[in-house]
User: Fold these one by one.
Assistant:
Number 1:
Amino acid sequence: MPSTPLRVAVLGFWHVHAGDYAQQTLDHPGTELVAVWDDDAERGRAGAERFGVEYTDDLDALLARDDVDAVTVTTSTDVHRDVIVRAATAGKHVFTEKLLAPTVEECDEVIAACDTAGVALVVSLPRLYHGYTAAIRRELDTGRLGDVTYSRVRLSHDGAVAPWLPERFFDPATAIGGALTDLGCHPVYLTQLFLGSHPDTVEAVYRSFTGRPVEDHAVVTVGYASQAIGVIEAGFVAGTPFTIDVAGTRGWLAYSDREARLTAGGPAYGDETVTLDVPADTQDAFGQWVDHVTAGTRADDNLARAVDLTRLVVAANDAASRDVVGRDALVGAPA
């Protein structure tokens, strides 16, 4: 815990989680919220008023202030590289919403800028630190499932049809994508955790049920040299439970947040369906960031996973583009 609070400014209320991180800044005993910047004055002023701090429309002036030690970045995804590099160059520690940046090359630039400046950078990948994730990793690490052959992770909400998700989330220029690029990040990094960071095949089907210019639901399948298959599902058009399924040659695991219960079965578990212990969540990403700032350490695992996440999202978006070309060809083919 720092002897004096880490003074934090919010950079952007574009993302729906901006208020969550601002509240975490208020709630954490080692941090203090001091200011808000946003390139949209109306949005920024509303955010600043909500949390009782000042608003500024001058990012450079904010980053030059001695009473700002760190920033949370919740701007549109397309400006992450620019904003984070400017913050790092000004000596400010950075906690950022995913994606870290739209491309792997931009991720590398961001990380290099933070390393050069000696500031702590952490990306919000919250489900890595939840208890069910640790419990699944525990079962995988013991080898109890045998050879792992399959994983499926689904996360969806009804934000596009209720509708409560801001329309800016459907702007391809600023959001860099739709359901997969935003909500789908969580199933992506969990799949990479369970099966491996580098699949050798990536296929994707994106659709826009609401007719918006980006996908509002998506399915991505990834294949591995081990012959395992991962299925990644995300959507803005159905509020289904968050689910994880992992299967191997000796057993299976299933988690759903509807019951908040992890079950297992197969020969490894006596051919019975059993309920497994789930530990408490570990330190969340925001708390880890504060700890890294205090200790002067680098979030090596978090940053490596953030880059791998971007790599797979880019590959999925590319695969979806190929799918569109293929569908257009089929539609235009003679009967």
Number 2:
Amino acid sequence: MKKMVFILLMVGLAACQERQEVTFTDEVRLPMTPVKDQGQTSLCWAYAMLATIETEHIAKGDSVHLSPAYVERVVRRKHLRGMGHTLLNVMARHGMVSYDAYPDSAYHKLPKPRWVFMLGARYTPLEFAHSVCAPDEYIALTANEHYPYQQEVVLDLPDNWEHNRFLNIPKDSLLAHVERAVRNRHAVCWEGDTHESGFSFKKGIADRHNQSDPTDNHCMTIIGIARDPQHRLFFTMKNSWGTHNPYGGLMYMSAEYLRDKTVAVYMTREAYEIP
């Protein structure tokens, strides 16, 4: 009987430890639109890049909320895989509309919008897209030792089926650019490897990882910088898997994880050029 009580106590203690969340201290937290849920779609690249554009505008005092459902409508495929570049290309070809005009819940009920109304002005979707994201406003960076550094390269990845180009820089340089961008109130779209045992949406943390080359399987938006109780550097990530984790859908990714498990990041050229 005593042995059984001991076992039950140990199981209960383990469960409590599993539920216990780490307390992070924010150093930077950028404003954002509500966390969304991409559901069964493969459109994380759209959710993350749109959230990056939104936060970039909101941080400058311009209220922007964009529609992932519109992207799904114009590409007509829930399971189209892509990268941050893919969203920028979709916007350049098909435009964009506001979330209020085309919310996720109304995707199958509303016709494709012909106009976007904003601050008393009327735009076509293409005009609206250009007003929130100018051509060539964003730069794509990678840190891949298999390609020459300081050159633009085409990553040989299934999700890069459009053959978009990335500026290849060393890992430490990429990490430094990301940190400088966020500290100067610029959002960053992150793309990389979430197939690690140290990546847990349930816990809201991405930390432990191995040293293998990263795979390209998810995108999120970097909207902050924080420290854990040991004062280690973490980046605050806005995910698109709903709000059911200890941080309301946000995640904390260690600087070491980001350094080693990044496939690409996207930031404005203004952010990239910060000295």
